[in-house]
Amino acid sequence: LVSEVLESNGSSSMASVCGSTLSLMDAGVPIKAPVAGIAMGLVTQGEHYTILTDIQGMEDALGDMDFK
Asked: Could you state one GO biological process linked to this protein (predicted)?
């Protein structure tokens, strides 16, 4: 299975995980359970921190940590 990204504004790797699972299921490949990926990130300012879900490209680039 090959995932080709034509455009990205966030986590293309997580989109590839989700799309690959759907492709395998559609092709009839027996898998135990579907899987999904979500991009999460961490932004800090001093002692305060915020965890973001479904981060976009700018949040990925400017954030303090990317959880994948």
From this structure: mRNA catabolic process
How do the pLDDT tens digits run along the chain, 68 residues long? Answer: 888 888 876 677 888 888 899 999 999 999 999 998 888 899 999 999 999 988 887 888 888 888 87
Residue 2 inside a domain? The answer is no
d(CA 64, CA 57): 13
**In a domain? residue 49:** yes
Structural domain that includes position 25: 12-67
Please tell me the distance from the alpha carbon of residue 22 to that of residue 18, in angstroms, as a whole number.
6
Domain count, the chain: 1
Q: What are residue 37's phi and psi, to 5 degrees? A: -125, 150
Fill in the DSSP letter of residue 11: -
Identity at 36, one-letter amino acid code: A
pTM reported for the whole predicted model: 0.63
